[in-house]
Each structure stands twice: as structure tokens, then as C-alpha cells.
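1st attempt posting a full record on here, be nice pls
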Amino acid sequence: MDTATDFPTLYVMIDDFDQSSLPTEPPRPGPPASLSRSEVVTLALFGQWAYFQSERAFYRYAQRHLRTAFPHLPARTQFNRLQRQHRDAIVAFALHLAHGLFSPDDAYEALDSAAVPTRDAKRRGRGGLAGQADIGWSNRLGWYEGFHLLVASTPSGVITGFGFAAASTKDQPLAETFFARRHQLDPCLPSVGQAVCGV
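the predicted structure (as C-alpha cells):
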């Protein structure tokens, strides 16, 4: 991603989508947030698309190079809270973008899963995601604590939907739930998206 040209284009696309397709944000008590919803979505997606070794490296880059575009950039912990607050907007734009990138030549979608470790599996204690993350097996990582990610993508690499489950969840039930939610849309699981091509 070229920051000079692609970043402003991404921000304009997200801002247009925010104003035309997302419901108006309800008023919240307390002082206004330092970043608007479209700014949070832009930074969240840019942090994933551009190559950064870690979340901390991305935020250091943002503080050094994006301060002119985002003069009210908050502390990283506050930005993380804003990302969680606008999770549905991030998912909605990602799926909107996927439908825009879909090629008519893509005749199918593929499913694949991956391990998403959240902490060292050998650490004692319940951790910060007790009840959501647990211990599972990955051929790449071995035993890990975290989540099991299922992703649908087209042959050209466009991600059309995704879902998370605890690390111990097997592929088959996770895929069954994924297909069921795609067949009968559930507002609680918007990230599964819709099939963009035939079967």
C-alpha cells in the first residue's frame, strides 16, 4: 500500500460509505470521541493492510507520519477501545469492499482456517479472554491458546467473510455454522458475509 496515494483514497471511500450506508451514531454520554467513526475504520484497516511488525509499530508510525491527517490521535489504548466500539462498522466496510473487488471470473470461494494465538498456552491462569479463547492444536504452531479463524476468499484473494471460534473448535462444526449463517443471515454474525458467486 502506497501511503501517499492509497491512504487518502481509502479514507474518502470509508467516509462516503459511512455517510451513505451506516446508521447515524447514537449520542454517547461524556466528552466526544477524539476520532470519528470513519477515521477509526480508516486507521484500523490501514494498520492491517500495510506491513507492520506489531500493533505498537503501527501506532508509532501513525503518531509520526499521520498526525497531520489525524491531529487528535489518542493514546493507543483509547484507540483500541474505539476500534472495539466501531467493530460492526469495520466489518460492514470490509464486506462492502470485498463485493466491490469481486471479479466475475471468480467461479468459486475457498474456505481455510488458521490459528490465532492470543497468549502463551503454557501460562497459568485464565487470561483476559476466559470463556471465549481456549487451548487448541495447530499443525503450524502446535498447542496454542486463542481462537480458530475461518476465512472465505475468492481465487483472486478477496476475503468475502470470516468467523472466529474458540481454538478447540473443529473445522467441520465451524464451517457448518458459517454456511448456515450465510444461508440465513444473522445480525449477530455479520462477518460471515454473503456468497458472491453461485455455489
